[in-house]
């Protein structure tokens, strides 16, 4: 019996009575899950506490959908009746929903039941939010599920982690949350290996976690029931798993705390609720929900359980900075450590201060006595000497000059500013820089004494020469204390020296000038020679970098362009061939094996090309996986083809990269000079076009450029341009070709066939645009559109009671190589409501050769879900029987080319029969396509073929005509049986 919990704060009748006196606003809280569920209770606490603490608290009503325990339609209907009965006459001003199901219910029914009130959601992740079609009058708080921070913290604690075991259930929220977690971990931490445990029973989970290696961790999102459907309360399950696990159990949500969770960057239900309530208060105050941005941040906390840290021997100091620790034992020192340290420090400083003070008193007394004696000696020396005594206090930068200085210059004491910046203004401008430099040299320790000669302007205006000496006094730390010395008037001495120097200078001036000039010329010459050598070396280095490819060492595109231009200019009558090479499917190798692997393959490819190069050839790396070879001075036309064939053959030998053996092929386009172009740009463009045609021809071959290729290339560009808007403009549609069981005539189902009707190009053949879509990767959205459209169509037929029929959908190799291909298929099945056993994916033989192991793994996984895998066009590829046994397929489709020749050519009949026998021996169903005549149908029936399709049964049918065709076909079968019953 389904029980719905109802716990409103006030009864609606009481509220209406209260509103008569004091109008209040009404808020309805809709919870997806039941009361007592930790996550829901935490959100509810955060919402109610915030609303009740506001200045004008609204009336709060709370309802629980209980979806986790009763996820069925009956529950939704009862909940609908409950809301309708309680709130049909009560005006609701705002709706707050927690988690997805309550939000979906509110969006669907608020206009009918709840006055179309604004919705504020909480606990919806990015996937749920992206699926909202109409965001009008809706806002809220995203449940920002990001495991990257938790993994970063785990790696901080244990850098050796390589495996992450994901614990979640198969509920809607469990799968949605896990999808986000897996996607973000693959993007942010591709080095980690992920193991999902949602397909295990509780006992299997216990056995697994009890033996995990030390390079692993457990990461739990949500868990309510195991794969068998057994409901398990979270606290019991988490505590049980954590108790037997050999590695820490990290969580994504804070309700795991105290239930075995080791810790992590945990989403807080209470913080989510508080933020949602804040948004609701803004809406209640009159702000439009459409103007309130969706909130993402501030709903998680970095927290660890001390008990779990102790169990796994992790110290608190080894946690990431800023981590919160719960359940930590009380410690007086830890709790009041700052206060204790401050008291100790203050007491220590006080003792030191008293000791220093006592010492300072004794020192000051001694210094005063010494200073008095020193002053006496200084006064006697200053009066007895003719020199000027000066002293600079380095703390105040104030000078003291003895009286003799003032007498020599004619100034009065106090007339000049005794700061250095004051009296230095009377130093001769020509001497100031020299004096300043010599003073600074001594103060910085470059000279042992200060010595300088300079002129000072007396009060009368004349300049006097002074010879100054001094020495700086430093303290123990090397700082300045005092700078003192003496000055001597040397004006007369300088006059004598000047006269003596004049004669000497006149005698030697000419000689010195000549010597200086000779030295200067020699020095300049040496610099010119040295600079010329450096410039030449630099130019050579930059030219090498500009004209070479850094990866392969081959000349690059710039080098090719210049050399090709030079060859054309010098060889107007010459002949040459330009080979444009591209490694087939190199992008897939890069995507699946990694760019480092791809770079090593490119280096080996360049070495192989050089190893098979004729003397007259030049090799270049054009960029990416493209190489260009210029073959000069071609004597015979057949040389062009011979060398192209040799290039193709050289790449049939596999490459060995470490433990991996890689098979690749190349597509080669050839432009010949001067036939296909007389300029470097024209030859390169035409060789590129020819290479593209080689890829269209099936890859692993070469094509010579022809004049009509440019037209085909331009046409392809036009098709690609219009194809990019085909889905958005609703230009694509599906036709459905029936398939029938041959032995009973019953309708098996249909194959979905894409068609394109362009307003500009008209009807475009799939043979034309599918290849173009694969080359430009538009096949990914187109293929997903086809799969979703076909599943919707078939699910609609099933809901109308027709069938059950099956649907076949063709899949491109581009889709299969996507990392999330299998997830996309299963997601579309869930969204459309189609049972997986009624879907069949058609794959060509060549697809498996692109990346056999990766594709086989994905298809094997889809096959386990009941999805059929058909090998299309069988017999036209290169599958051996031993290879065929390894493919995860359920159906063989005989290619139309084997059916067309029946019964005209006897050679195809036994071959078609052999294919049917092979398929049956391997336990596979066999389908023949392209059946157009009764003779072909009779032969296939004789060979016991299982299913057929083709124009003899029906042409592809537009979607709106399928139902009428089914009725007509069933009536024809009934009419065919009626004569047989009458004859009996």
Please provide a written account of the structure.
The chain has 984 residues and is α/β, with parallel strands linked by helices. It is built from 34 helices and 34 strands. The strands form seven sheets. It has an eight-stranded mixed β-barrel. A five-stranded parallel β-sheet has the order 2-1-3-4-5, with helices on both faces. It has a five-stranded antiparallel β-sheet with strand order 14-13-17-16-15, sandwiched between helices. Helix 27 (821-832) runs parallel beside helix 29. Mean pLDDT is 83; it is low at 1-22. The chain crosses the membrane at residues 339-361.
Please state the structural category: alpha/beta
* Radius of gyration, in angstroms, nearest whole number: 45 Å
In total, the number of strands is 34
Major pleated sheet: 8 strands, mixed, barrel
User: How widely separated are the two ends?
Assistant: 56 Å
Low-confidence stretches: 1-22
Mean pLDDT: 83
Helix content: 40-55%
Widest sheet: strand order? 25-26-28-29-30-31-32-33
Q: Globular, elongated, flat, extended or rod-shaped: what is the shape?
A: flat
Task: Summarize, please.
The protein is an alpha/beta fold.
Task: List the keywords.
984 residues, alpha/beta, 8-stranded mixed beta barrel, 5-stranded parallel beta sheet, 34 strands, 48% helix, 20% strand
Write the layout of secondary structure elements.
Elements: H1 12-21, E1 26-31, H2 38-52, E2 59-64, H3 73-87, E3 94-98, H4 100-113, E4 119-124, H5 126-130, E5 138-142, H6 148-157, E6 163-167, H7 172-188, E7 193-196, H8 202-209, E8 216-220, H9 234-244, E9 249-251, E10 263-267, H10 269-284, E11 300-305, H11 306-311, E12 324-326, H12 332-335, H13 337-384, E13 388-393, E14 398-401, H14 403-409, H15 420-423, H16 429-443, E15 450-457, E16 463-474, E17 480-489, H17 491-547, H18 557-570, E18 576-583, H19 586-593, H20 595-611, E19 617-623, E20 626-631, H21 638-650, E21 655-657, E22 660-662, E23 666-673, H22 680-696, E24 702-704, H23 708-723, E25 732-741, E26 747-758, E27 762-764, H24 766-775, H25 779-799, E28 806-810, H26 813-816, H27 821-832, E29 839-844, H28 845-850, H29 852-864, E30 868-874, H30 881-885, E31 891-894, H31 896-900, H32 908-921, E32 925-928, H33 934-942, E33 947-948, E34 957-958, H34 962-983
Parallel strand pairs: 1-2, 1-3, 3-4, 4-5, 6-7, 6-8, 8-9, 11-12, 23-24, 26-28, 28-29, 29-30, 30-31, 31-32, 32-33
Antiparallel strand pairs: 10-11, 13-14, 13-17, 15-16, 16-17, 18-20, 18-23, 19-20, 21-22, 25-26, 25-33, 25-34, 26-27
Helix pairs in contact: 2-10, 19-20, 25-27, 27-29
Domain EAL: 716-970
Domain GGDEF: 574-707
Organism: Paenibacillus forsythiae
């Amino acid at each position: 019996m389904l029980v719905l919990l109802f716990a409103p704060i006030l009864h609606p009748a009481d509220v209406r009575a209260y509103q008569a006196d004091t109008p209040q606003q009404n808020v309805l809280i809709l919870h997806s899950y039941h009361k007592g569920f930790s996550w829901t209770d935490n959100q509810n606490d955060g919402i109610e506490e915030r609303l009740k603490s506001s200045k004008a608290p609204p009336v709060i009503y709370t309802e629980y959908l209980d979806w986790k325990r009763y996820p069925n339609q009956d529950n939704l209907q009862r909940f609908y009746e409950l809301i309708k009965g309680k709130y049909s006459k009560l005006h609701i001003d705002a709706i707050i929903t927690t988690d997805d199901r309550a939000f979906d219910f509110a969006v669907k029914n608020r206009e009918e039941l709840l006055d179309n009130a604004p919705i504020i959601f909480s606990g919806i992740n990015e996937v749920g939010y992206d699926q909202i079609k109409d965001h009008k009058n809706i806002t809220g708080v995203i449940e920002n599920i990001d495991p990257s921070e938790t993994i970063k913290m785990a790696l901080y604690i244990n850098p050796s982690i390589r495996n992450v075991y994901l614990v979640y259930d198969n509920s809607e929220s469990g799968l949605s949350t896990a999808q986000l977690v897996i996607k973000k971990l693959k993007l942010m931490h591709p080095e980690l290996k992920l193991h999902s445990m949602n397909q295990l029973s509780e006992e299997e989970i216990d056995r697994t976690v009890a033996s995990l290696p030390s390079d692993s961790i457990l990461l739990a999102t949500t868990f309510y029931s195991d794969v068998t459907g057994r409901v398990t309360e979270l606290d019991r399950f988490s505590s049980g798993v954590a108790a037997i696990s050999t590695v820490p159990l990290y969580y994504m949500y804070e309700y795991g705390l105290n239930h075995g969770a080791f810790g992590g960057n945990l989403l807080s239900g209470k913080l989510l609720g508080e933020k949602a309530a804040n948004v609701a208060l803004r809406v209640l105050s009159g702000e439009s929900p459409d103007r309130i941005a969706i909130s993402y941040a501030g709903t998680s906390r970095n927290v660890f359980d001390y008990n779990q840290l102790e169990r796994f021997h992790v110290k608190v100091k080894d946690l990431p900075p800023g981590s919160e620790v719960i359940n930590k034992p009380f410690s007086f020192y830890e709790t009041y450590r700052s206060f204790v340290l401050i008291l100790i420090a203050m007491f220590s400083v006080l003792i030191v201060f008293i000791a220093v003070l006592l010492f300072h008193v004794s020192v000051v007394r001694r210094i005063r006595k010494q200073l008095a004696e020193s002053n006496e000696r200084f006064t006697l020396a200053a009066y007895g000497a003719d020199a000027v005594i000066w002293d600079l206090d380095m703390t105040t930068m104030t000078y003291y000059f003895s009286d003799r200085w003032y007498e020599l210059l004619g100034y009065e004491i106090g007339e000049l500013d005794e700061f250095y910046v004051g009296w230095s203004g009377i130093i001769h401008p020509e001497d100031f820089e020299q004096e300043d430099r010599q003073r600074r040299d001594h103060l910085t320790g470059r000279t042992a004494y200060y010595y300088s000669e300079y002129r000072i302007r007396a009060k009368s205006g004349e300049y006097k020469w002074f010879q100054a000496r001094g020495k700086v006094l430093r303290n123990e730390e090397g700082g300045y204390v005092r700078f003192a010395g003496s000055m001597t008037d040397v004006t007369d001495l300088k006059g004598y020296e000047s006269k003596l120097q004049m004669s000497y200078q006149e005698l030697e001036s000419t000689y010195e000038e000549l010597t200086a000039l000779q030295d200067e010329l020699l020095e300049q010459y040496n610099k010119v020679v040295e600079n010329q050598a450096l410039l030449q070396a630099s130019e050579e280095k930059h030219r090498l970098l500009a004209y070479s490819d850094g990866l392969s060492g081959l000349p690059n595109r710039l080098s090719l362009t210049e050399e090709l231009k030079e060859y054309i200019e010098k060889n107007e009558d010459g002949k040459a061939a330009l080979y444009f090479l591209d490694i087939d499917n190199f992008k897939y190798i890069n995507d699946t094996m990694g760019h480092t692997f791809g770079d090593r393959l490119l280096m080996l490819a360049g070495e192989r090309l050089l190893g098979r190069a004729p003397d007259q050839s030049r090799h270049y790396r054009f960029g990416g996986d493209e190489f260009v070879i210029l073959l000069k001075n071609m004597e015979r036309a057949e040389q062009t083809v011979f060398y192209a064939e040799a290039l193709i053959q050289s790449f049939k030998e596999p490459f060995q990269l470490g433990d991996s053996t890689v098979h690749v092929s190349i597509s080669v386009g050839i432009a010949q000079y001067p036939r296909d172009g007389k300029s470097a740009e024209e030859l390169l463009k035409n060789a590129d076009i020819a290479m593209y045609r080689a890829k269209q021809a099936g890859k692993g071959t070469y094509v010579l450029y022809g004049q009509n290729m440019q037209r085909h290339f331009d046409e392809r560009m036009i098709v690609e341009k219009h194809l990019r808007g085909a889905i958005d403009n609703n230009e694509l549609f599906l036709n459905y070709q029936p398939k029938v069981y041959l032995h009973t005539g019953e309708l098996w189902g249909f194959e979905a066939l894409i068609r394109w009707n362009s307003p500009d190009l008209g009807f475009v053949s799939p043979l034309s645009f599918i290849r173009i879509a694969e080359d430009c990767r538009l096949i990914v959205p187109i293929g997903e559109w086809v799969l979703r459209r076909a599943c919707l169509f078939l699910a609609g037929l099933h809901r109308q009671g027709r069938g059950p029929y099956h649907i076949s959908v063709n899949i491109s190799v581009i889709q299969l190589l996507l990392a999330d291909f299998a997830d996309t298929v299963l997601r579309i099945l869930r969204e459309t409501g189609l049972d997986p056993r009624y879907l069949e994916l058609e794959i060509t033989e060549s697809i498996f050769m692109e990346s056999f192991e990766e594709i086989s793994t994905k298809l094997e996984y889809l096959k386990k879900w009941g999805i059929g895998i058909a090998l299309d066009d069988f017999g036209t590829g290169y599958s051996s029987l031993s290879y065929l046994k390894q493919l995860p397929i359920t159906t063989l489709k005989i290619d139309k080319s084997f059916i067309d020749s029946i019964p005209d050519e006897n050679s195809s009949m036994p071959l078609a029969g052999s294919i049917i026998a092979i398929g049956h021996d391997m336990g596979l169903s066999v389908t023949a396509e392209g059946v157009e005549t009764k003779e072909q149908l009779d032969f296939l029936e004789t060979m016991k073929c299982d299913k057929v399709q083709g124009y003899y049964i029906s042409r592809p049918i537009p979607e709106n005509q399928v139902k009428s065709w089914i009725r007509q076909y069933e009536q024809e079968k009934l009419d065919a049986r009626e004569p047989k019953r009458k004859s009996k």
